[in-house]
Predict the 3D structure of the following.
Amino acid sequence: MKPISLFDIGKKATSPEEAVSLRQKLVSRGAESDYSHLFHTTLDLETVSAKNCENLIGSIEIPVGVAGPLLIKQLSHEVFIPLATTEGALVASVSRGCKALSLSGRASCLVEYKGMTRSPVFACQDGRSANELVAWIKTHESVLKKTAEATSSHLKYLSYQSWIRGRHVYLRLVFDTDEAMGMNMATIASDAVSREIVAASDGVKLIALSSNVCTDKKDSVINSLFGRGYWVQAECFIPDEVLTSVLKTTADFMLETHTAKNLVGSNLAGSLSQNGQVANILAAIYLATGQDPAHVVDGSKAFLNLEKTDGGLYVSLTLPSLELGTVGGGTYLPAQTEARKLIGNGNMPTATELASVVGAACLAGELSLLASLTTNTLAKAHKALGRAKQ
Amino acid sequence: MKPISLFDIGKKATSPEEAVSLRQKLVSRGAESDYSHLFHTTLDLETVSAKNCENLIGSIEIPVGVAGPLLIKQLSHEVFIPLATTEGALVASVSRGCKALSLSGRASCLVEYKGMTRSPVFACQDGRSANELVAWIKTHESVLKKTAEATSSHLKYLSYQSWIRGRHVYLRLVFDTDEAMGMNMATIASDAVSREIVAASDGVKLIALSSNVCTDKKDSVINSLFGRGYWVQAECFIPDEVLTSVLKTTADFMLETHTAKNLVGSNLAGSLSQNGQVANILAAIYLATGQDPAHVVDGSKAFLNLEKTDGGLYVSLTLPSLELGTVGGGTYLPAQTEARKLIGNGNMPTATELASVVGAACLAGELSLLASLTTNTLAKAHKALGRAKQ
Amino acid sequence: MKPISLFDIGKKATSPEEAVSLRQKLVSRGAESDYSHLFHTTLDLETVSAKNCENLIGSIEIPVGVAGPLLIKQLSHEVFIPLATTEGALVASVSRGCKALSLSGRASCLVEYKGMTRSPVFACQDGRSANELVAWIKTHESVLKKTAEATSSHLKYLSYQSWIRGRHVYLRLVFDTDEAMGMNMATIASDAVSREIVAASDGVKLIALSSNVCTDKKDSVINSLFGRGYWVQAECFIPDEVLTSVLKTTADFMLETHTAKNLVGSNLAGSLSQNGQVANILAAIYLATGQDPAHVVDGSKAFLNLEKTDGGLYVSLTLPSLELGTVGGGTYLPAQTEARKLIGNGNMPTATELASVVGAACLAGELSLLASLTTNTLAKAHKALGRAKQ
Amino acid sequence: MKPISLFDIGKKATSPEEAVSLRQKLVSRGAESDYSHLFHTTLDLETVSAKNCENLIGSIEIPVGVAGPLLIKQLSHEVFIPLATTEGALVASVSRGCKALSLSGRASCLVEYKGMTRSPVFACQDGRSANELVAWIKTHESVLKKTAEATSSHLKYLSYQSWIRGRHVYLRLVFDTDEAMGMNMATIASDAVSREIVAASDGVKLIALSSNVCTDKKDSVINSLFGRGYWVQAECFIPDEVLTSVLKTTADFMLETHTAKNLVGSNLAGSLSQNGQVANILAAIYLATGQDPAHVVDGSKAFLNLEKTDGGLYVSLTLPSLELGTVGGGTYLPAQTEARKLIGNGNMPTATELASVVGAACLAGELSLLASLTTNTLAKAHKALGRAKQ
């Protein structure tokens, strides 16, 4: 059987609309009316076809709820957090956490941009020549920097790390990609750098432009140690009265459950994540604001800390690799753009501000989930509000 | 400052429409017209508000492209794969992989349902009483099974594992949740089982209904070893002529890059995943078909294998924990339902069939990415087709 | 240059003594007197040459100190713990911990024998035939059990686990090897089982008798989850007065340091161990009692738990994979045999008793180290007592 | 029951001999003659008591066999490798690997000294002040360097890394400790640095001088990424004729088994080590040459690479954290000193040279084990030569 060519349709059609329509006919075997929701879209077909999605046939819609308001020390306005999710109880859970944080004198956020990375791997003739390549890169860093920066006016070269395994050299290039998440920019710059390295070196071969040492969209320790995208930490001191009134729990219960679940339970499971449901909140904000949802994999490797203090709890959530941006990819889509504007209370937030809000929202979700576990009301909430989280 | 209560709005409004409208007014500070795309939705407000998303204000739209057709030995029809994504080049990449698989005599899939899990953790008085609790559970398994199954007609108890750490007992309960992904059902059943254990045991306390040993939406080794949801393996023998004509590469190049990237590079990064971009494809199909995108975290811990054979390559991708379903959560949404129907060529696929397609589509994505790395055309593709993928 | 054959010497010599002497001459280039300590040994040359060490040339001596006495609930006598070490402060540290445990109403130990494992890996024609092999093994378990048990009167077959990756089947066979650590027995039994599987199956090939899934002498999560050798947990309630008088610290300080170091610090380092210096104590007892010191790698993946209680601390150390024995390998050597006898207070302890003592001694070491960290006296101790420990 | 004080004996005795004798009487309950081997020692009681081992009662003896000769490009002489082991077949296995390497034109070694580390953890008032502490350390690095170097004439400060988790700062200090393994020196220097930090900072508290981020004697990714002690890589091209004649195997078999075992099997087991038996060889050389055997835990996290080449195999073993020295700890003991001299062919090797030999010997062990797995002769070897390895 000869496979039908969806690509050919794109080439033959005289307009994006026609291409979409022809594809719909083809994949539905002529039963377009059976797919009226999937085949309906309000998106701009030309732009989306060109930039975001080949073989376009339509779109799906994901409901957006709003959690908050959330008060963050580094932002002057009350923040409403748009969450695109179909998981009942999630928005309610984050909202409760926001209330706890806001009533505790606001969440506070530290943000440090670590840069976007890409990691080519090169093959040399032996370990000694791999060592020489590492030395060559060290002495030619300024040249490579120039090469990288020539590929885009938005990209700045920041630094690199390198490792040898056998006769292979793994290079982890780190770039400032401005307001973009920047994976594309980093790939193009790494390609230029890699080609220059190969051209300058005798017998050096590029094995792969991406060697998983980046690490993109896979769990890794390297991202936790070096960071990727934005390193964010949200924290707060929660007084006992807020624990009691809003979270219906106590500092001791929170600490006991946190230790048994996030510090010991994760370890038993062979997991290096130390949190309860960061992936849930991350996925919901990433979708709402036009980020790449596959980046939830790296971003959710997050670390909750709780300490008992006089009169309450110190809580913090460290997220070493939030890969996000305000330009590029799906960020320009209209609803997603408006969702970011909503976060900015009418003004477009910077990527750094967005990263703060993401961190604080994830902390809110952690507090609320942990509290509901201490009171064993998780199952009850899910019976009432739909599907289970965490 | 008194935080504004979004929840109160829901209670005061006389209809879901009014509630949505009031919330829109509130969060936009009266500037609703600035958020016309975000605040627009075709979804059923009543159902979505009740089941999927509290504090509903609107929705976002994600474009859907289609990859394929893909031929799978276990399915009689050509499969078109709907991918909800904004990442340029992704659909094209999966399509190329589908072509390679289809021309190689179809992909073949193994699927085994492992069940949905939830892991309560209990505190005992000391290690000895923890040991006794473990023994009690063993002898009362049939009672607990009855308790679990009384919570839902769709749920069957399957098995359990248990571990002691100090005086805590971690229990991992495994359920068959039928066609649902089942996290909610499993939570409710685990709640009943946990309450029964606590009632029957002297001095045993439930610390948390979920202890991260499940493991839900976090990277873990436990899911790789025991599986969660569906264990899927897709495989194919790719002849040299398909490697050359479709993937523009050779068996030797594929193997060299796979080893340097997935087997060694991942290890260097401190990652136990052995794949290139499974998270991308998983996120796109999960979104298109109404799954929970946060499950991409566990699901993407997948393992690619390549072996040179006479005349080509044996390739396989093992995905031990695909948490998905055809009922529950966001699966009922109209476009998402139609996307599954598209996969079933007009018939609704079972969760098992869906799992097969997901596995094979991920394998397609792996082959195409790996091939483009061997030919160093990744950067080029992204320049042409938009944003970078892993 | 033709390499000199040390093996030929063994064959030519008419006695073990002569062989040793000829080898000493050869490797010292005739300068035997320069190596008078290394070339001196009181060991039985014939037995050692035949069973423990090819190309024998002499021996090294390691000092043995004694920690204790340690009181353990499951043992009726005071235990003295022989530690073979050159690390100043280690014996003193363990002794202090023993004192704390003994004064706190004795340590209590749980021991469960999990069995010795070996993991062959088989190649099949494809995933489907791999699946069939797994099914075949399931239905032929009793036959394979017989085959395994025919290889030794000391070995009992216990169970197996299996996994598929691509077209490879990984089998983890679990045996009761009686009082022996049993790696050798398990290897021979696995060899017989593997040969039977290959003989019975069409197109199945044994790739390796050991596939690292055992896991032997490498860090792994699989051993933590399933156990290997002896699973041991030692625990104790330490009253505040003992914390103050013996350990010079408080429950709060201990908990704070434990959390920052073992639960969070280990995680930051990308380590799944949650302890301070188990490897030190394990190495010292393993060497003193004739165990294989390379098993410290798996054995030291141990998990300390601390909980504040009314009036003190609950402490426990879980060690899921202590591979040890009282027969086989180097256990028969005279000083090492006597070291075990010392542990048994004049009687030879069983492997289970030995495992208890090892667990409790490691807990003693943990308490003492943690206490010294809380008081910041670690550097001071090392200045006074020699070299640094963890 | 009042525990008997072994420490008091030490204080009362008028000589080390008397102290040893009194302890022997005490721990043997007067039956000294039952422990004649354990209580016998040729070691210098005074020095050992003072520097290496408190509560000294005697010693154990471990047989030493010799593997080799091994030819290494960076050393001008044939190397004999002393291995202290009781594991039958180990010396034979390493010897076979040495023969293969030597006949293949010598092993080649890369060595890079990474330095010894210690990682204090500090508590601050909140995340912001943690951030300020990190900034303070950065601007005061030269002062801290001076403080560190004032503690020992043998120690040079090299660099540091730092991380924030919540309001804790984890500092990883890296020192050059000259020819010593240097854990003690690094601890004392870190103590001085930590005290200075605390003195200069308002509200900063030292939680622990060692936070497991070092990482000492625990598995970790941090040591693989940054190295600790010596980073060593040994490599060789093995021609097909050596594979056939010495290792009785082929390049294809070696590669197939390596991939299934070290790259895939380890991953399945949840292990980030990629080798077969490095721990065996490391333990045996470390014991023979006076190193700390607990360092086998970190050191054995080693990575084997195999690549097919025209006419044979490229093989390499990367060991990122070999913690060893030629002075300090147990290195001065007479037999252990002579063992190092044996390695140096009559001259004392430097720590760098020793590290090379350790790396090459481990590679020899890997090749031999892998070859025996491909031919399925492992069980046979163990039947013939004693106990199982790997």
